[in-house]
Design a protein that fits this description.
There is one protein chain. By secondary structure, the protein is α+β, with helices and mostly antiparallel strands. Helix content is about 20%, strand content about 10%. It has a two-stranded antiparallel sheet. The protein has a two-stranded antiparallel ribbon with strand order 2-3. The longest helix is centred in the middle third of the chain and has 11 residues, at about 65-75. InterPro entries: 4Fe4S_Fe-S-bd, 4Fe4S_Fe_S_CS, 7Fe_ferredoxin, Fd_C, FdxA, RnfB_subfamily. This is Ferredoxin. Ferredoxins are iron-sulfur proteins that transfer electrons in a wide variety of metabolic reactions.
């Protein structure tokens, strides 16, 4: 099992999860985070830390696409290990439908 970041992170990018990750498996895009599925040790400490409820175990239905999504971008984006401020529109975008199609950016974040 692994944990993955889903589309509710897009346009929010809370980073509470990166502070508690014991293996530094989060990677930062311009407007979301992902988890490298091969580096995640399945400890689950990140899941309750996410204010947007964007982190899910891959054992839930329809998570296969998110495993591959997280793998793809974790191999292209820089690792992030320190908490940063969420995006300015995070509260208003939290829970919004269709964020992948509306807001997702393939551009890397700054990492750090």
């Amino acid at each position: 099992m692994t944990y993955v970041v889903t589309d509710n992170c897009i346009a929010c990018k809370y980073t509470d999860c990166v502070e508690v990750c014991p293996v530094d498996c989060f990677y930062e895009g311009e407007n979301m985070l992902v988890i490298h599925p091969d580096e995640c040790i399945d400890c689950g400490v990140c899941e309750p830390e996410c204010p947007a409820d964007a982190i899910r175990p891959d054992t839930e239905p329809e998570m296969e696409k998110w495993v591959e999504f997280n793998r793809k971008y974790s191999e292209a984006w820089p690792v992030i290990i320190t908490k940063k401020d969420q995006l300015p529109e995070a509260e208003e975008r939290d829970g919004e439908e269709g964020k992948l199609e509306k807001y997702f950016s393939e551009e890397p974040g700054e990492g750090g």
